[in-house]
Amino acid sequence: MPSATARSARKRDAILEAAKLAFLRHGFAAANLDDIAVAAEVSKVTIYSHFNSKEKLFTSVLDWVIAGRSTGGPPLDPTVDVSELHDALTAIGVDLVQTALDPEVLALRRIMIAEQPRHPLFAELWRRTTVVAATDSLIDYFAAMQRRGTITDAEPHAVASQFLWMLIGDPIDSGLLFGVSRLPEARAIAAAVATTIVRAYGMPRE
Question: Helix, strand, or coil here: 120?
Fold first, then answer.
């Protein structure tokens, strides 16, 4: 028989999945907790026992989606050889572009934009756990490669920010406004950005 902890975790995941679908379908304001409870096959009291409020439920959905999209990506391995740097950056870039263009991610961004006047903390949380977290990881990655002599001694924050926003800036803007059909494939975007970074900062092979 599953433990109480396992049953609680399954209920929590069921609530998050039902809530995610409700928010994506109806937006934050129109999503109904009673409907979410029915879809998750739990009581409304159970929802409140896991999440204190509708706002907390929504931010938990954001965290849950981000965590799901953050697993399984290519490692940020600073020991990569100069000869393999372009391929490594391309693989990282493909994952970042695909994440930015994930239909659920784009839909959640639209919800946060709509809710910004009433719930600015939604966007603050999202930015902290996506753009800021990704930039911080890339800063560490590029700084470690600088110490190894793989890339030039440029300011790591500048390199990380340039790499990230060359990858996701246009895809996010186009995806939010028009959908993803007008954009090149993620690999084409990532390969072009990797070429730019390697040419600007890569150390020549000996």
Answer: helix
